[in-house]
Amino acid sequence: MAGTGVAAVVFAGTLVTGSCQASEATGFGRLHPEADFLGSSVPVSERAGAVGRRTASVSAVAPDGLPGLDVSHYQKTVDWPGVAARGAKFAYMKATESTTYLDPTFATNYAGSANAGLVRGAYHFGLPDQASGAAQAEFFVANGGGWVNDGKTLPPVLDIEYNPYSTADWAGWCYNRTPAEVTAWLTDFVTTVDDRTGRWPVIYTTRGWWNHCTGGDVTVPAHSPLWISPVASDAGGPPGMPAGWSAYTFYQWAKSGTFPGDQDVFAGTAADLAAFAAGPAS
Questions:
Q1: Where does the source fall among the domains of life (predicted)?
Q2: Active-site annotation holder among 159, 194, 217, 234
Q3: What is the mean pLDDT of residues 151-159?
Q4: Residue 234 vs residues 75, 93, 244: alpha-carbon distances, Å
Q5: Identified catalytic residue from 70, 103, 138, 194
Q6: 32-278, what's its fold?
Q7: SS3 at position 271
Q8: Which of 72, 219, 239, 264 is spaced 20 to 30 Å from 113 by Cα?
């Protein structure tokens, strides 16, 4: 591994340390996990022809729902009291990528958001061509992706989107895996997270990626809530749903705005968010 450092992650009273992968060679260049975040591969992939181009802000007006945000190392230091004062009710932050990277800002963001009164959770940037779904799920859960019913912890999230290290075509965007192989990887990941935490992870994805790379799988959506990333064709209206889902739980509606990082909404009330954080456990 090239360019490693040490990160510390605090979760449920446990201090976890691990290596932070700065760069490592792949078939398409060097890994850049510090630059990978929810939706980071979507604009460039869609400009290259995957589906309708996504703009910097798909909707000019926030959709109905509770406001929140998602952040990663990319945002550096976040003023969480200020974020709360501007009305954010929840936050997600990147914890891990593949089986080698720990986001060095995760522990600070995880504690800071909770201390500011936000309900918060962790997400994993999945790379199906780097390690098995089970291996990545185990790494995620061990390094911040767990869940406890404490009233302030949201269920874990899997970010699965266009391969950020690939050629600009569907074979590369789908990690050079068939729909059956992608679906098997996803099933491996979500069932492992559920086994370890008692919660099915939320799936962050786009309609185009899901329908093409999984072949429109409906088995994973039977358990996992949806966090939708829209495309430009969704502007002015609700986002189109990937196969298997009829509604979203979270909606990443803009890449910048009132809060640092991406702008999100939860589809429900404050009471609904509290209930979602609390369970039900499977």
A1: Bacteria
A2: 159
A3: 97
A4: 26, 25, 18
A5: 70
A6: TIM Barrel (3.20.20)
A7: helix
A8: 239
